[in-house]
Amino acid sequence: MVDRDDRTADRMLVAGAEGGVLVFGITPPRLSTTPERIREITAATLARLDFLDVDALALYDIADESDRNPAERPFPYLPTIDPAVYHAEYLGGWNRPAVIYRCVGKYTEAELRTWLQMADTDRVLSVFVGASSKGKAVRTGLSEAQALRLDARPDLLLGGVAIAERPEEHQRLLAKHQAGCAYFISQVVYNPDAAKSMVSDYYYACRERQLEPKPVLFTLSVCGSVKTLAFLKWLGVDVPRWLENSLRHADDTLAESYQHCLANARDLIAFCRKLGMPFGFLVESVSIRRVEIEASVALAAELGRLLGRGRPSA
Amino acid sequence: MVDRDDRTADRMLVAGAEGGVLVFGITPPRLSTTPERIREITAATLARLDFLDVDALALYDIADESDRNPAERPFPYLPTIDPAVYHAEYLGGWNRPAVIYRCVGKYTEAELRTWLQMADTDRVLSVFVGASSKGKAVRTGLSEAQALRLDARPDLLLGGVAIAERPEEHQRLLAKHQAGCAYFISQVVYNPDAAKSMVSDYYYACRERQLEPKPVLFTLSVCGSVKTLAFLKWLGVDVPRWLENSLRHADDTLAESYQHCLANARDLIAFCRKLGMPFGFLVESVSIRRVEIEASVALAAELGRLLGRGRPSA
Fold first, then answer.
1. Domain that includes residue B46, residue range
2. Which residues in chain B are closer than 8 Å to A264, comparing Cβ atoms?
3. Residues of chain A numbered 254-273 and touching chain B (CB < 8 Å)
4. What ipTM was estimated for this complex?
5. Å from A164 to nearest chain B CA?
6. Helix (H) or strand (E) holding B41
7. Tens place of pLDDT per residue across chain A (314 aa)
8. DSSP-based three-state secondary structure for A204
C-alpha cells in the first residue's frame, strides 16, 4: 500500500466536526491462528480496505463477556490476538491511524502504562472499555485507566464507549468527556431513536456547561441471518420489533439489513448536521461470515459517499 | 357547500387499501356555547375543511379522563357537546362521512342501541372507546357495546382505538378485529417506531391467521408550545427525548413540530406501502389555539399531497 496521505490521529477527529468521521472496525484473528495464516488474513483485509477512504481502522479487544448475559452466547467466545500486538506485528502496511480498544480490566496498571508510553500517538488512538458487569474482577478499573493515561500519556487520543440503550447515558458521556475522552464510539445501532436521544441529551448538557461536545461515532453492522440477529440482541443491541420482523420475514436478510443500516445512517447524518453535533460512523461486522464482511465493506463505501467522500486517489 | 362527491363510509376504507385514508378530527364545541356561536364556529370549521380533500370528519367524544393520570391535566377538562348530537344538529352542511366517537361507558345500552338504529350508515362510522382506566365505573363496557352493534346494526362501520405505547397492543387489535372492527385509529403518534412495531406485529399476526389486516389510521397533531407538549405527554403520548429536546429548544416550536409530523408521516407511508398494510392518517389539534388549528389544516393539506391527492374540484 502506498503512503497516500498524512492523516494523523488528531486530524481524524477534526473530520467529525466537518463532514463526519469514518472508521472500519475489525476483530484481530484468533489466538490459535498460525502467523502465516494471520498474514494472509491481514493482506486480504487491507486489500478490501484499500478501496475505502476511511479515517482509521479500529481493532477490537475481545473479552469473555459471558458474565454480562446469562443467556447462551449465539457465537462461541474464542480468544483473539491482543489488538496492540496485532497492530505492532502485522499492520505495518496500514498507513492511517488505528483505534486500539483496551478492555482495561484485562491488564495490570504496569502493562497499561508501558503500552501507553510506547504508543505512537500520531498513528494510534485508543478506546478504553470498562468491565462488562459490576461483579467482574478487574486488574484495572476504568477510572484508574483514565487517570493513568492523563498521567502517563495525555497526548494519546482517548475514546469512550457509548451505549444508547442505557438510561441517562449522556451523564456517563459527560463524565468520560471530563475524564479526558476526545470522542465516543457507540454500541451497534439498530434503533436510531435511542442514539438520537442520547446524543441530543449529551449535546444540550454540554451547552449548559459551555463544553464543546465531542464526536460520537455510531457503529453500524449488517445482519445476514437470524443467528447474527440473535447475537446482536445477546450483545444488548435494541432492535425495534418492526425491524426484527422485517429481518425475519425478508427473502434476503442481509440485503434488508443493509438497507436499514443505510436508512439509519441517513437519519443520523441529517439529525447531527441539523443539531450541529460532530459525528461519524464505525462500520464492523459482528459475524465472521464472508458475505457479511463484504456487505460491511460495501456499507462503509456507501457511507463514504453519503459523507461526501470520493474514492481515494492512489 | 356543494354536494361534490358520492363518497360513502365504506368507500372511505377502501382508500386505506389503495392510497391511504385521510380524516380530519375535531372536538365539538363546549356544552356552554350558545347555539348561535356554535353555528359560527361550525361554519368557520367547514370553510377551512372545504380546502381539504379529506375522506371524513372525525368528531371526538370527550370524557373526563382524570382517573387515567393522577398528574394535573395541563388543559382543564370542559364538557363538550355529544358528537352525535353535534353531527345531527349542526353538521348538515358536511356532505362526507363522519366518524363519530363514542366513549361507550358514558351511555346506557338502551341509549347506544337507539343511536345505532338511527345512524345513517352511509354517512356515519363510529369508533367505540372503552374506559380510560380499569377502576372507572361504566354504563356499558366495550365488549357489550361491540356485541350490541353486531346485534343491532352490523352495517355500521366500527373502528377501534390503537395505542402503540401499550405492550402487546397487536393482540388487542386482533381481538377488536375479531369483534367486528373494520379499522383502527391510533393515539397521537410522536414515536413512529412504536407505531411501526404495533402495525408490523398486527400485520404478521393477521397473516398467520389468514386474516386481511384492517386499515390503521395514524393520528398526527402538531405541538405549538411547551404546554401542548405537556398535554400530549399527559395523554400518554410517547415523545422521544430527542424530539422533546428539539421542541423545547426550537425558536418556533410549532414549525419544528410541523416538520416532525411530516417526517413521521413520510416514514409511516413508506413503511406501510412496503409492508402492504392499509393505512391512513387522522389529523387533529389537541389544542384549541387558532395557530395550532391552522397548522393542523395545513398539515392535512400536505398529507393529502403526500397521499397523491389534488385539491378537490368544487
1. 9-306
2. none
3. 271
4. 0.91
5. 12
6. helix B35-49
7. 334 456 788 888 887 667 899 999 999 999 999 999 999 999 999 999 988 989 999 999 988 777 778 888 888 888 999 999 999 999 999 999 999 999 999 999 999 999 999 999 999 999 999 987 888 889 999 999 999 999 999 999 999 999 999 999 999 999 999 999 999 999 999 999 999 999 999 999 999 999 999 999 999 999 999 999 999 999 999 999 999 999 999 999 999 999 999 999 999 999 999 999 999 999 998 888 899 999 999 999 999 999 998 654 44
8. helix
Cell numbers describing residue A4: 497516500
B148 assigned to some structural domain: yes
Q: Is residue A74 part of a domain?
A: yes
Chain A from 194 to 213: CB within 8 A of any B CB = 196-197, 199-201, 204
Number of A to B CB contacts under 8 A, please give it. 41
The 8-class DSSP code of residue B190 comes to S
CB proximity A167 to B under 8 Å: no
Residue at B141 is within a domain: yes
Write out the three cell numbers for A62: 475481545
CATH number, residue A180: 3.20.20.220
Give the chain B residue nearest A242 (alpha carbons).
B197
Query: Would residue A313 count as lying in a domain?
Result: no
Domain count, chain A: 1
Helix runs in chain A, H state only:
9-17, 35-49, 83-90, 109-118, 142-152, 169-178, 192-208, 226-234, 241-249, 253-275, 290-306
Chain A residues touching B196 at Cβ < 8 A: 240, 242
